[in-house]
Amino acid sequence: MNQKKIVIIGAGPTGLGAAYRLHELKYDNWMLYEATDYVGGHASSHVDAHGFVWDEGGHVIFSHYPYFDKLVDDMLGEAENQLIRESWIVKGESWVPYPFQNNLRYLPKEIQVSCLLGAAKAAANGNAKAAENFRDWILATFGDGIAEAFMFPYNFKVWTTPLEEMAKSWMAERVAVVDFKRLLENVLYERDDAGWGPNSKFRFPLHGGTGEIYRNMAKRFPEKVITGKKLTAVDPAARRISFADGSGDTYDVLISTSPLDLLIGMMKGADGKLREAAANLHHNNLLVLGLGLEKKIETGKCWIYFADPEIPCYRATYFSHYSAFNVPNGDTERYSSLMCEVSFRVEETPNIEQLLERTIAGLIRAGMLEEADRNRIVSRYHRVVPYSYPIPTLGRDQALSVLQPALLEKGIYSRGRFGAWRYEIGNMDHSVMMGVEAVNNVLTGAEEAVFRSA
Ligand SMILES: Cc1cc2nc3c(=O)[nH]c(=O)nc-3n(C[C@H](O)[C@H](O)[C@H](O)COP(=O)(O)OP(=O)(O)OC[C@H]3O[C@@H](n4cnc5c(N)ncnc54)[C@H](O)[C@@H]3O)c2cc1C
Fold first, then answer.
1. Tens-digit pLDDT profile for residues 21-49
2. What is the pTM of this model?
3. Of the candidates 130, 159, 188, which is a domain's last residue?
4. What is the distance in A from the centroid of ligand 1 to the CA of 13?
């Protein structure tokens, strides 16, 4: 049979999802090229010099797709932990269970009043359909009290972008919206209400962090995954690609998981219209700060959100709670770890030492660490992660409507967190499925349900 040659760029969840599907179908004419010397992309994990395991930011495994669930079963077998999300928001002196708006009773009375008043007004004014951007949508949905107390400062920290420059269309199930009656009852009846959302339970690999899933996937077809191959040029007319080391390959179909703006930059003959559209895609970067402690921390807590500007991170994860093997020798009697995430804008260079110090001070202020714990920090880990959040700006969808059809016409499927550039389908389950479905589409014409989802 004359099989089309499929080339995959990137060994993250999307590229490996595509590869896994090809392997499953016993299709042979394909290769995967990865720029780095490891697999997993943003979902990889790294062991530091002291033996602590770190993810590239807090990853938890939850899924919307039976195919993905089965794949994770296949990769991990019994070697996983099942966790119940216990997530909190630190606001000033208060600890509020997530989601914030459902647990206002944990706040000082005057903030409770302003949050409830704002939410009542928002409810009376109807819905948020008329809102033109993310900021207005927050105001119309939650009211000004909750917006000022949490939604505005927290989201600005994560996105590093003025919220009025962001669209509202991407949110889907990502942000718990308001049911005013429930919110009021929770305050009056002093009721906890923390079970919301698709990740209220999640899985985590016992060994090796999140990256274990993807390392195990790549082991299924080692001869097909070539690392250390950075794509630098694409000639769509000749269907030829070149790598930084001077080598190259040809393809009939290219499945690229490289950031879409960079892909356009590498494309021979990309016209002004494509380049202009690519320039309208915006992202930010991430600094992962890890604190490996010689101290036992016993907790059921998973991660903590921070809205206050004094602490630079938007989130801190009790990473040793996810698996004992995230600390040296699995010895949680002796060790624990906290992993913090700081977003920064592309034009910024983070001052790592200063951010680490401010983060430690913030964790002490929040009561997550004691002053004496400064002497118990045995590992100060950091990792700069470029291309962290694909920002759903107002111009994003227009840009994508120019770029994606033009690429597909040339046999290029740009898929994945930064290939598709749609945060709303930017998690691991979406990414793996985008890879799987791209292959199905190439081979059988089946619809790409995840990529095409509104
Ligand atoms: C802070 C943070 C927290 C997250 N939390 C969660 C979570 O809790 N749960 C969840 O499900 N998901 C989470 N995610 C999302 C998850 O990381 C992504 O869904 C997933 O990694 C996307 O996979 P991908 O293959 O599309 O892209 P990537 O993971 O970015 O992989 C792309 C791969 O392509 C390679 N590549 C890029 N350019 C080239 C080139 N020119 N040549 C060759 N190779 C190239 C890269 O090196 C990389 O290996 C989180 C992401 C971040 C940043």
1. 999 999 999 999 999 999 999 999 999 99
2. 0.97
3. 188
4. 7
